[in-house]
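Fused response regulator/phosphatase
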Amino acid sequence: MSDRNQPDRPQHGAQRRRLVLVVDGSRAHRAMIRIHLTRAGYEVAEADTGEAALEFCQTRWPDVVMSDWVMAGMTGPQLCQHLRAAGRNAYVFFILLCVKDQPADIAFGLEAGADEFLTKPCSAAELLARLRAGIRILRLQDETHRANQRLKQTLSALRAAQVAMDRDLNEARRLQQGLIGERQAKFGDFDVSNLLSPAGHVGGDLTGSFAINARRFGVFAIDVSGHGVAAALLTARLATQFSHSVDQNAALFINDLGLYDSRPPSILARYLNHLMLADLRVDTYFTMVYAVIDQSNGQVTLVQAGHPHPLLQRADGSVEVIGQGGLPIGVVEDAQYDEVTLTLEPGDRLLIASDGVWDATNAAGQMLGEEGMRAIFQTNQLNRGQAFVEAMSWSVLAFAGGRQQDDVSAVLIERQRAP
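Predicted structure tokens:
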């Protein structure tokens, strides 16, 4: 038997013969087609009417249907329409056998769903050639179906992995929110309010405060470069450097009198810079503001290491920009950090906000900047504590058109007015 008479069969997996259903009212014509197809290696089934063909398809779905156009009862095009309407996943290749070869007849058959035409009578060579062309199309359809199944399985696995990842990231978000401790803290006449809003599940910003001793307390704001899990992991590592435990907090030590004390902010900045470059050895850096506040007289000593400028609002509503900028932590070995000293009088407040606030951009490409920050202070002059930082967060989000492009964090230190 020559290769051209062999049916196209699956090249991978189990071999099977393609099933061809021949539908024709003429027993002699069906027998002739059966002989040609059987010799070529196809499995052949017969039906004498369209109705009988549909009944056969209820139990077995053929690969190919070869149907006469004109039959008693249902016509070939009508049979094709019924099969197409069945909605089966497996595609059946439909060949119409007809004596009609006019363009209008061909167009009518195509609209009914037919794939190919053979004009009766046809030679065995033409019959098998058209059939092989149809089988190639079916093989492509089978391969596409298998590819789609593999894709569905892959997408299902990815969705399951995404659900697990989202669950883990949500838990990480809750843990990260817990790093700042209480959103509000009180140290004598001073109130400290924190805001932490990651752009994704987790972020690289951190704010907080801790008691140094009965007289002084520390406040910090950190912004790790980058986003996502890597930044969050470094943030968690840095959080231990500002914990409430003297054994872990890099800012605290016990002095010669056995009392808790704090290292100067500039010394702490140099220590953290060395830690990043010599010990942690990570390809990232962070910006920071660390301030030590004396509750007895309101004196604030702070270091600014690449973080946006703190803003000081006096009791009369005026706003001052604090600091000179400074180098980020973890960029240059032996970097020097200068301290800034100021005094918070009763009714004054100091805001330390991340670049996610300062650099928020509107639809026109304009950044919020100092002008926008001053406007937020003026608009929310009567808001205090958590109400202020939350109002600021909403203002920033509204300015950016509802799009949070970066982690947003801030810490607000307020000195209460004298009674």
